[in-house]
Amino acid sequence: MEYLEDNKTETFEEEDKEREEDQVLDSDEVLDSNELNDMQECLSQTDLSNIDNNRAIQQLSLGSMEFPSYTTNSEKEEMLLGLADNFWHQYTHLYPDRKPLFMCPRNECGVEKFVCTTLHPTLLPYSDLYDWDQSAKFVSEYLTMEPLNPPLELPRSLFSSTSVLQKQSGNCFDFSVLLCSLLLGAGYDAYCVSGYATREMCLMDEKRNICPLLNKVEESSWEIPQKPLKKYTVKPPRQLISKFAVQQEAKKQAKMEEALRNEQEEETRLKEDAEKPGPDNLHGLRVHCWVLVLSGKREVPENFFIDALTGKSYATISEPFLGVESVWNHEDYWVNMQDCRNGCKDMKFDLGDPVCWEYLLQGGSKPLLLIPDEEDEEELNGETIQENKTIFQMPPSWVLPIVIRPKEFETRCPQGRKILQYKKAKHEKWAPYLKRDGHVSRLTGYLDTECTQEVKIQDCFQNRKDKLDLREQNKIEQVTTEYFIPGRADSLKVHEYRSLAPETERSMMFYSEARLDGLQRRDEKPVEMTEIYQGRADFLYYRHIVFGKRPKKVAIAGGPTEANPRPILKITERFNRNKEKPANEDVAERTFLLTEDRIQLRCHRKDDHITTSYWEFLKPANLGEKDTPIVLTPETCISYQVEPSEKFSKQLYVYETLVTLQQAEQNSKDNVRKSETEVREILATRAQEEADPQLTISIYDTERNEKSKEKREAMERAIQEERQRRAVQELDYLAPFLAQLGDPEKLTLWQAQKVKEDCLSDMKQRLIEKANLIQARFEKETQELQKKQQWYHQNQMSMSKEDEEAYLDYCSEAMFRIHILETRLNRHKDLAPQKYLALEDRLNKDPRLREPFLTS
Amino acid sequence: MSSLYDTMEPNVIDDDMLRNAVEEQGPKEEAGRIAKLEGIDFKHVSSLRLDFKNILKIDNLWQFHSLTKLQLDNNIIEKISGLDTLVHLVWLDLSFNNIEVIEGLKALTKLEDLSLYNNRISVVENMDTLSNLQVLSLGNNNLTSLENLIYLRKFKQLRTLSLAGNPLSEDDQYKLFIAAHLPNLAYLDFRLLNENIREMATMKYQYSIDDITHNENQEKRKQEEEEQKQRELDLHKAAYVENLNGPFLFESMYADDADGTKLSGLPGVAELMDSYRSKCIEICQNIFEYGMKQHEKREAEAFEFNECMQEAIRENQEQGAKKIQELTEKNSEILNELSQSGNQDFLDLKISQYIDDINKLLDSLMTLELQLVDQTEEIIKEYERNVSDMVSAFLETVQGLMAQVRDLENHHHEKLLEISINLLEKVLKGEMDDEITDDIRMIFVDKDTVINAVSASHDIHLLKIDNREDELVTKMNTWANNLIQKVQKDEIQRNRNRILEITTYIDHLRDELDNLELHEQM
């Protein structure tokens, strides 16, 4: 008990007095029985966990363990261990109250290794890992965390990063060593830190943290730039308002706001209190290991911590870090001499300061504390250089280089999936291609801390053939939003909907530059549709359509919906200003009231006018019909013109405008119908894509691209076959004959003659044999046929019809066979001499049998 | 045509002919019926065809102001005239006529397509202003000289040219000559000039073309230089310090001064002149630089003023437009309601409400306008004050500098007088007999003559300086006055226009309502 008590209050005092004071203070605290129980439990676990650790070591029969550096210590390492031992003895002698240091844990082979040599600075060939944040993310994702057991003591062993990577799991020390190795390799001034942290930190419990992905970047407040006051800026008109009244109003407003704010603050405080974790009995005792990055290298502006378990960075004054025992990198080891009563808030990380940090080797490149006196500095430099020569250098790392294969790098999490729990949020990750629909991550937001009621789901996809990138589902409003990357045939960018049925509320955004009609956005409501365009040659940028109710119609059984389109009540189109036309003739808004046969036109405002011209046309009933005179009454066209002109008042103008407008109306109607069809088509495509999601595979992806894989394999196979074929071809036709002679290097004339003769006679023999064989078969067939015929002639009378047919079949078949054999025989007879001659020719030409090569 | 010419009386373009042509060629079918009923205004006709009419003289076309296409082919026109008012013409067809000289086309700067096929033209000329010409048809004419076609190099846009049927087109070199000399031409006699021909042509006429291009380039450069000079001078003139950045003033002093020039030949005067000259130039340069700076300042001031003015007007306009927009939206709602509702009381209520709205709109628009007038008045006054300050400061400084020039002149005069009198004594004593010319001897007769001559020169110089100063001061003051007047006038004009617009619009709204009421009652 005393020990625990001590530990609990333990801070790293150097003065006895101080410690005594603290003890006096702390002895006031009374531990209740509950806490006692907790601690006993913790202690009882200690033994068990030791066994666990040992077993783990035994189980790991890794290939790398056969490597000598893993199983033995080199001479230099032995010396280093001696030094460390010496240091440790002195340390415990000087500071008997401090906890043991983490210096020489055993590795996976049970060999003591100094911690600094466990760090192996490595730069992996992935550009992602060049920056600390991506490295930290990788480490936190790649490994599975095992909590320290017991949580209050340093682990007995520290495995090499290679075996940690192999089993894809480790404790905080393993995490930190791996991350530190990567960071050092990338050129950061990184250190492993052994110290104490809060329970949440040690257990990687992020249930109380807000998910980092949910923290949206706040939109930068868009300030309207203050217009510079120019010399001739007009004065604003005088406002006839009582200043006093304004003041009173402002005061009232301020009061109300303050009350509201107070209320809100109160609320949030209450909420926070409720969410606070219960008190931790072991606060300040939990051992943890993390990474420290010092400023200076790689443009790091100031020191910060990285928690390797979560991959998050913290300022060095962050609260969760409660104390530091020691830090190390691949070059040296430092012990903290500063007071950690206030956590790490007052810590200095100037490792060259011997008052704050006690070094082990002083072999590192860390400069000594900078002394402002310049003369001294020079001397000092000289000294250090001299000293450095004699100083013991840290032996190279015993760990094999860290290797991560591309596939492992891509798969990341063990088994390709990982689940992180945050406050009111859950984040699931999958490796690409793991899920059949290309799902790579899902972020679920919950309404309550217990995570029962879903509010929002964010699904990320990758490599989808339909270019789906992100799907957001708002469970409260039942709205789904899908985001697509460019490249779809319909150029869809965002699709927001409640249901996939047509003619319901939805909003679609498009990549307008990829579309011929420049459509940027289409919003739909049950009876309305709004389309927004961009960059069109006809300056159209807005179209609004109001639909009416479908007239009742006797439905054709199974007929398509197009058979009964919704009637269009009104089409409004707006246009951008066309600078080439005068404003009075450039239409800004065009409204077709289809049910009333009316068309309204409104022109753009001219630069120095405040009114706009407009026309209202009432379509005559027989417009567009040929050979019927049209009566243009004054009511046909009601207009207001900013600058009345004779041209516009002419009847001819009215008539011509009417005709073009009618054409335009028809076009607009067609376009609306097209839009409706398109929406229906997109919805159908989407439904199909969702039902059967397909993934694309890059042509450079040699692992997954089936086609290229097949092709490659086929190519390999072809090469193989080619090789075999060549081998067969090289089979020597003279080989058996030469073998008879005992494979002489060179043939004598006589031997050549013999070989030639043998070969030819063999050929002759074979040809004759073949001919005989065919002859024999032919004869056999003929005989059989004759027999059958005889039998037939004998029994012809008593035969049934079927037998007769069978006989006839047999006859025709036999005749066919005989005929074939006959042909073959003839052919053979024809070919045999040729073949014989060919062989003879070949033999004559064969270099081995020709004169110059023959030994006499 | 010539056979017809003998037998038929030439026709005159008169109103009936024009009307018939316009109606015949105007809108067709239903539109044509309406147009006929209504009558077509010659002003709005854009294309006219008057072929096979036996016209001798082009006349009476001044009404067709917006005409872009005119066909006068197959007539007996002998002289191109009466086309000066048709400045919008793009297409002109004068083929199959009896034209002998190209003329009267100066005003048709927009012309792109010109056909003079089958006429009696012998020289290509008088087309300098037709810089947009793209198609030119000169077939079946009397063109004889290939050299004359170099004239066509002027038309950078010319793509199609037809010359077949001319005496010159029988020349073997005809095609090559044209291909070489008109590099922008794409079609000759309706055939593509391909790369081959062009290459051959360039090889053949290498030297002459080089010569021509060289000359053209030189001319162009000269023209550019002149333009540059002119621009600079204009700028200086705008700053009212033209010809002050050099010895112009000094030289102009001696230009009309015979005695002075003579006197400057005296021994010892040369040095005096030199120092006087350099000092004078220095001061002039000062004036010039100061003037340019002031000019820039004035421009900046004007720019800033205009900008602020425009901004104020724009803001005001937008407010007004917004108000009108609001009313329009409301208006359409009310009209809808009116058309749907049958209740008389409700109608009356709505209508009175609408009338109120209109009145309110009128009020607010007028208030806005008044407010703007107040605001602009204020800044115009300020601008006026600033401009006059600037002008007076400028004039003061310039006058001070001019006074320096005058001092210099006085000083010079004294010195000259002294030297002259000294010299006179010597001359009278006969010491200088060999050194002086006869001209000077004429002056150095007696003291009075000498003094007269010197003072006369002095007077001339002073007069020149005074004149220059006066010119500058007057111009400057006129500018200031004009500027302010113009600004005020513009503002008044703007105000008038706006008020007119507002009243027209309000009247229109009221009319509309009246019509509606009338309609309802009926």
From TrEMBL, chain B:
Question: What keywords is this UniProt entry annotated with?
Answer: Cell projection, Cilium, Coiled coil, Cytoplasm, Cytoskeleton, Flagellum, Leucine-rich repeat, Repeat
Q: Which residues form a coiled coil?
A: 324-393
Q: Which InterPro entries match?
A: Cilia_flagella_integrity, Leu-rich_rpt, Leu-rich_rpt_typical-subtyp, LRR_dom_sf
Q: Which cellular component, as a GO term, is one annotated location?
A: cilium
Read off the Pfam families from this record. LRR_9
Q: Which domain of life is it from?
A: Eukaryota
Belongs to which family?
Belongs to the DRC3 family.
Would you tell me the protein name for this molecule? Dynein regulatory complex subunit 3
Q: Which organism is it from?
A: Xenopus tropicalis
